[in-house]
Amino acid sequence: MNRKYRKTLIAGNWKMNKTPSETKAFMTELKAMLPKGRWCDIALCVPSVCIPAAVRALRDTRVGVGAENVNANASGAYTGEVSTSMLVDAGCKYVIIGHSERRAMGETDADVNAKTLAALEAGLVPIVCCGESLEQRESGITEEWISMQIKLALANIGEDKIRKVVIAYEPIWAIGTGKTATPEQAEEVCQHIRGVVRKLFGSKNARAMTIVYGGSMNDKNAFELLAQPDIDGGLIGGASLVAEKFVKIIEDANQPTA
Length: 258
Ligand code: 13P
What we know:
Oligomer: single chain
Bound molecules: 1,3-dihydroxyacetonephosphate
Low-confidence stretches: none
């Protein structure tokens, strides 16, 4: 983390877990446990049907609600999809874009770019995901792959909007596997991402960009990961489903840094 230059963000990604009733119960539990003092930014990205319950429960807190996906089109014949204006109207502040689980369902880099542009236009904070597979890591092309994903995801974003983007580095081999990247491995790629952003948008924007790590981050390993200079937070799956674990990660992010 580097709080002098950029925001720290601890975001949960619930994926396809919890019903609206369970969301209400979880938020009530979470609210009672949230640290009182210093705060990093906190978000919970939940299934679409849980957004109203989450927004209602978190209304009087500083926890932002996010969606896990969005359609880039403004409106129309897209059965089953949800637009940016719907998310904004429902009270969302964040949206996850390009998660590897969605890319595996056919989402392309062009889709990720279109969704990112649409989210920024609507005033949402896009949490744009990138990450390599185990095969790509083992064949030594991680940095090249990530550069390409970032360049395509951030194409045509104006200088005035780039600082709103959060990038999440999520190595696919670490997601849901319990196999976390070491702090050094995660730092290496997050630093590389900042370098790519520097080339594209200049050093001030790169220095101000929040880049988070995701992939089996939990209450046991968050502190060490967050101690890395280029890791400005976490995108947390499994551990965000358990209030005590999620709160412990927030507490770790609130620790003073050197
Ligand atoms: P896990 O924390 O369950 O590995 O999931 C990470 C992730 O995909 C967050 O978006």
